[in-house]
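Appendix B. Raw example, untouched.
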Amino acid sequence: MTPWSTFAEVAGTAAASLIGLLFVAVSIRIDFIARSQELRNRAAQTLSLFGAVLMIAILIAIPGQATEALGAELTALAVVAGGGLFVLDRRAKADASTQAIRKTLELITPTTIVSILLLSSGVLLVFGVHGGLYVLIVPVLVALTGGVASAGCFSPRSRITASCAFLS
């Protein structure tokens, strides 16, 4: 696992930094976000995506861990995170607004991709397929990229915010 420590360090640092920035962006626009169940759930999804990446980084960084043990941990994380993301997505869609932001947030919420690929990576590692670590790169990148795109709708100065009409 030593060759993967740099990946874990970079992913974990990026996720932790983005979690902090998300809190700032949401707190700046809290008046708009608090009025919408959809936005509250989308913000929670974004936080969950960044949190999943942080957890992945922590799990990879555990010293002396067997690949199969990492696989079991990633599989459990995929089930828990995937279930939570699914519930948040259902709640957001249940109270879907008629605002322009709705379609934007639905398009840039990569919850299914992250959940399925994280689960796939974990299962591969459980069965001793070390290529599962390479599969893990994609959900990490998708979670970070999708989370940043989604978080842009909560920021008051972002170009993305301009397309999220009611936030600007």
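End of appendix B.
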